[in-house]
Design a protein that fits this description.
By secondary structure, the chain is of the alpha+beta class. Helices cover 40% and strands 25% of the residues. It has a single domain, classed as BirA Bifunctional Protein, domain 2. It comes from Rhizobium freirei PRF 81.
Length: 302
């Protein structure tokens, strides 16, 4: 049995995660949720004084916004859409007959106006763009959302539905890159406080296809994305638990995010994979939080 399956089985046996029969889709126990809540309070301690505007979007977003984002050009393999029955009574009878005999009852489902949110920040950009010009001293937002990515796996740290906490900064190039660097420093400090060994390395997103390889190489060459890595199911291939991304003016141009003088805004974000951080804590300190080091418990629960 590999380390991923072994750790997943231990999480199931302990009741921390609940098997739903679908890889990457799990229930969570109260104890698991308590660890996430405690870590979110730690995030607030580090970032709360920055004055970010808190916004909480649902796990689904406007399909038109999703299409404008260009996500399907880069990550079609990860996207999830919401479909629904839109037929008449005859169509309903046909659907029930398909289910009864084991045929595919989903073939006549139609796409709705909702797409599953791929990253917590995606609904933010069109929302802010509608407000008008960005202040000269920039803007900062605090987000948290369930996100979906279609990549079923036995690795408990690679879930299909998971929560992402983000801070998104909009402003000048220097403003947002300084923001990113400050959170890279904070991220290391935070993980040290909860007893986790980390490394930070340059990274790239999983762009699709041959053209995607060029995009990935450009992203790495320009140091646009860094990840904070923690061993969870592999020491050789540690898991990205935080990401630090500089988008340049890509989102500003796409969504019309401008300063009052018309110049395009740059953006950057820091993302916390909340389930992954909780799993890193359980993997490192054990499945019983009462047995965790006192210093870690004090940091999380006071």
């Amino acid at each position: 049995m590999d380390m991923q399956s072994s750790f997943l089985d231990r999480l199931f046996d302990s009741g921390l995660l609940i098997d739903t029969g679908v890889d990457g889709l799990y229930g969570r126990s109260g104890q698991f949720e308590d660890v996430i809540s405690a870590f979110e309070r730690l995030i607030d301690k580090f970032g709360g004084a920055d004055g970010a505007e808190a916004i909480r979007f649902p796990p689904g977003m406007n399909r038109a916004f999703f299409e404008t984002s260009g996500y399907m050009k880069s990550f079609p393999q990860l996207a999830g859409t919401v479909h629904s029955f839109c037929g008449n009574e005859l169509d309903h009878m046909s659907l029930l007959k398909c289910m009864e005999v084991g045929d595919d009852w989903t073939k006549d489902q139609q796409a709705t106006d909702i797409v599953l949110t791929p990253a917590a920040c995606y609904p933010l950009y069109p929302t802010v763009a509608k407000r008008g010009a960005i202040p000269e001293n920039g803007a900062l937002y605090d987000l948290q959302s369930y996100c979906f990515r279609h990549e079923p796996s036995k690795d408990p740290a690679r879930q299909q539905l998971f929560r992402m906490r983000e801070y998104v900064c909009m402003g000048s190039e220097k403003h947002v890159t300084d923001f990113r660097q400050s959170w890279m420093d904070r991220g290391v400090e935070m993980m040290k406080a909860v007893g986790l060994d980390v490394t930070i390395d340059v990274a790239n997103d999983p762009f699709f296809g041959r053209a995607g390889k060029m995009l990935a190489n450009n992203q790495r060459d320009q140091n646009l994305k860094f990840e904070l890595l923690i061993p969870i199911t592999s020491v050789a291939k540690p898991t990205a638990c935080m990401s630090f991304n500089y988008h340049q003016d890509a989102f500003g141009t796409k969504w019309g995010l401008n300063f009052a003088d018309g110049s395009v805004v740059h953006t950057a974000c820091v993302g916390f994979g909340l389930e992954r951080i909780a799993l890193a804590l359980f993997h490192t300190h054990g499945l019983d939080v009462k047995e965790w080091p006192e210093s870690v418990r004090k940091t999380l629960w006071g």
